[in-house]
Write a structure and sequence with these properties.
The chain is flat and about 65 Å long. It is built from one helix and two strands, in the order ββα. The longest helix is centred in the C-terminal third of the chain and has 30 residues. A two-stranded antiparallel sheet has the order 1-2.
Length: 62
């Protein structure tokens, strides 16, 4: 990771401990809900951006 305008670098390592979890093939409800919430947030943000762009174009310039 580089920070402070490239003046300082930091390295970090992550170690994961414990037994591997078997993949059942079906995503859990939490994963499915998270994906749905992310999609909804992206769609809402896109709708707001389009609305702002259209309102700027429609407003008369001073």
């Amino acid at each position: 990771m580089v920070s402070h305008h490239g003046q300082q670098t930091t390295q970090q390592h992550v170690t994961i401990a414990g037994q591997p979890v078997a993949d059942g093939g079906d995503p859990s409800w939490a994963v499915t809900g998270g994906i749905a919430a992310t999609g909804l947030a992206l769609a809402s943000g896109g709708a707001v951006a389009v609305r702002r762009r259209r309102s700027r174009k429609a407003a008369p310039s001073a």
